[in-house]
C-alpha cells in the first residue's frame, strides 16, 4: 500500500459516506420515537397512579349511604350546660326561631324568623340595634 493511498483512506470519515449518514439519521429518528413513546408511557403510568389514589381516597356513594350516624350520648356521657346564663341563651335562641318554617326549605327563616318579625328595621336605618331602638 502506498503512502498516498493510506492517506486518502484515513481522510475518509463516516460523514463522507452517504450510507452511513442515512443510517445515523434513521437511528436518530428511531431514538427520538422511542424516547417519545417512553415519555408517553411514563406519563400514562403517573396519571393512572394519581387516578387510583384519588379513587381510593374518597368513599364511594354506596359507602356514604350505608354509614349510620353515631348514637347520641346518653346519661352521664351527655355534658350539658345548666347554668342560668346557658338557660337564658337557649331561651333567646328558641324565641328567635320560627318552628313553623321547614329548616330544609329556608333555614334562615327557621333560625331567625321570629326575631325578624319582632325586630323590624326602620326604613331610614341600615341596621338594627337594641340600644338604638330605645332612643
UniProtKB/TrEMBL annotation:
Keyword hit for Transmembrane helix: yes
Coiled coil: none
Protein name as it appears in the record: MME
GO annotation terms (biological process): protein processing
Keywords assigned: Membrane, Transmembrane, Transmembrane helix
Transmembrane stretches, start-end: 33-55
Organism: Bugula neritina (Brown bryozoan)
Cellular component, GO, one term: plasma membrane
Organism taxonomic ancestry: Eukaryota, Metazoa, Spiralia, Lophotrochozoa, Bryozoa
Keyword Cell cycle: no
Entry-linked SUPFAM superfamilies: Metalloproteases ('zincins'), catalytic domain (SSF55486)
Sample GO molecular function, one term: metalloendopeptidase activity
Amino acid at each position: 500500500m502506498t503512502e498516498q493511498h493510506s492517506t486518502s483512506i484515513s481522510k475518509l470519515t463516516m460523514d463522507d459516506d452517504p450510507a452511513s449518514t442515512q443510517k445515523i439519521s434513521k437511528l436518530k429518528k428511531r431514538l427520538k420515537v422511542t424516547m417519545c413513546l417512553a415519555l408517553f408511557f411514563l406519563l400514562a403510568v403517573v396519571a393512572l397512579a394519581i387516578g387510583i389514589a384519588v379513587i381510593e381516597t374518597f368513599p364511594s356513594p354506596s359507602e356514604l349511604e350505608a354509614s349510620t350516624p353515631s348514637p347520641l350520648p346518653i346519661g352521664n356521657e351527655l355534658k350539658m350546660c345548666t347554668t342560668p346564663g346557658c338557660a337564658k341563651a337557649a331561651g333567646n335562641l328558641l324565641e328567635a326561631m320560627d318552628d313553623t318554617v321547614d329548616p330544609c326549605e329556608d333555614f334562615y327563616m327557621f333560625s331567625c324568623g321570629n326575631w325578624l318579625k319582632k325586630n323590624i328595621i326602620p326604613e331610614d336605618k341600615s341596621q338594627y340595634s337594641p340600644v338604638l331602638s330605645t332612643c
